């Protein structure tokens, strides 16, 4: 189990040091901003959607290693997916990191996200791992207001 944990840490560190799709596309069709005020993570997710398919996805921002790695992995997995598939991946990823076992865990793309499954042991880190995903969902829905990991009054 220690070897697997070490591998997961290496993947997270690699995506943090060399995030994939870290850029602002020239002509995104959708975008949303997200903020984790307790941790200081901030992310903007950009989407280019054509005919119901995520043709391009990218992000900008700053955050901890988990937040950046999660956003990087998300962009790799969501690109080329139909909108409904992207929403379903978010739902299943959220279930995985919040401690419930998602249906269809054998999905290859969800398997790639297993590197982030350990955050369920640390509730504050769940917010880091899911910030970009909540921001993705907001972009898909066309939500203009920034997404926050904190509810008003918390």
Q: Could you give the topology of this structure?
A:
Blueprint: H1 2-17, E1 30-36, E2 41-50, E3 53-62, H2 65-78, H3 83-97, H4 108-112, H5 123-141, E4 147-148
Parallel strand pairs: 1-4
Antiparallel strand pairs: 1-2, 2-3
Helix pairs in contact: 1-2, 2-5, 3-5
Task: Please provide a written account of the structure.
This protein is an alpha+beta fold and 154 residues long. It has one domain (2-147): Sufe protein. Chain: A (Alpha-Beta Complex). The chain is 45% helix and 19% strand. It is built from 5 helices and 4 strands, in the order H-E-E-E-H-H-H-H-E. The protein has helices spanning 2-17, 65-78, 83-97, 108-112, 123-141; strands spanning 30-36, 41-50, 53-62, 147-148. The chain has a 4-stranded mixed sheet, covered by helices on one side. A hairpin with a 4-residue loop joins strand 1 and strand 2. Helix 1 crosses helix 2. The chain starts with a helix and ends in a 6-residue tail after the last strand.
The top level CATH class name: Alpha Beta
SSE series: HEEEHHHHE
Q: How many E-type strands?
A: 4
Report strand order across the widest sheet.
Answer: 3-2-1-4
Mean pLDDT: 89
Number of helices: 5
Strand percentage = 15-25%
| Overall structural domain count | 1
Rg (CA only): 14 Å
In the predicted model, the low-confidence regions spanning at least 5 consecutive residues are none
Whole-Å distance between the termini? 36 Å
Query: What structural category characterises the helix and strand content?
Result: alpha+beta
* CATH topology heading: Sufe protein. Chain: A
Main sheet: strands, sense, barrel: 4 strands, mixed
CATH architecture label name: Alpha-Beta Complex
């Amino acid at each position: 189990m220690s070897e697997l944990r070490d591998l997961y840490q290496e993947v997270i560190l690699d995506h943090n040091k060399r995030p994939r799709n870290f850029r602002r596309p020239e002509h995104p069709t959708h975008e949303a901003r997200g903020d984790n005020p307790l941790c200081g993570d901030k992310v903007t997710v950009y989407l280019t959607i054509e005919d119901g398919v995520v043709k391009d996805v990218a992000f900008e921002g700053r955050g901890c290693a988990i937040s950046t790695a999660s956003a990087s992995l998300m962009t790799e997995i969501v690109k080329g997916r139909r909108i409904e598939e992207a929403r379903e991946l978010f739902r299943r990823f959220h279930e995985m990191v919040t401690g419930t076992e998602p249906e269809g865990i054998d999905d290859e793309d969800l398997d790639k996200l297993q590197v982030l499954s350990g955050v369920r042991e640390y509730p504050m880190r769940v917010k880091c791992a899911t910030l970009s995903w909540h921001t993705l969902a907001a972009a898909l829905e066309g939500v203009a207001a920034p997404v926050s990991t904190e509810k008003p009054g918390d």
